[in-house]
Amino acid sequence: MKQLTSMAVVAVFWAVSSCAQDKGSGTKDPELRLELVKRMKAEQEVREELEKVSPRNRRLDAAAQQNSEVKAVLEKMEQIDKDNLAWLKSTVAKKGWPTRSMAGPDGSLAAFLIAQHAVTDLEFMKTCLGHVRTAYKKGEADGQWVALMTDRLLILREKKKQLYGTQLRAKDGRLVPEPIEDETNVDRRRNEFGMSPLADYLKAVNKR
User: Fold this and answer.
1) How far apart are CA 121 and CA 119, in angstroms?
2) What is the per-residue pLDDT for 81?
3) Can you tell me the distance from the alpha carbon of 73 to that of 56, in angstroms, rounded to the nearest whole number?
4) What is the pTM (predicted TM-score) of this model?
5) Which residues contact 141 (CB under 8 A, 6 or more apart)?
């Protein structure tokens, strides 16, 4: 639970910056895009609700989670994530991974965010990372998504240090990275996926 607040910030940050540039024209499956965008809207809105009722940039500890407002939003978020996860698993099994050409840039972003929040099924998240890597190599996904999901799996599934510094935690009222492997070269690794230096990334999320 301690990463909920920081991850909500990051997820909203990426969603707003990416979706604002796209209207989904020319997609192969416009109905799939609409469903994905609708589900992304729901999951982002509930995370914005959580930001409003929880301590800003602070650990959402057990005591904070017992606050009636926080508890209600957490329960709502868990249900949305559960529904989205079940739906995405079924959709990927039937249609394959929602790429940019299939579902539009915002639809593919929505698929990534749903998978990124599938913390109750890390094996499925790992499978999704494989799809995202393949899509990225074909120009059908954003390289940042590979980094974000890789780091998340390293921390949550492998219990290891992250590689790209994308996963944050609250400390002293600010968001700071979880431990990073070979931190000296983190900006070189980030650059491989077209990402800004870690210091700039942290400045942006904390400013928001």
Assistant:
1) 5
2) 95
3) 15
4) 0.85
5) 99, 100, 108, 112, 132, 135
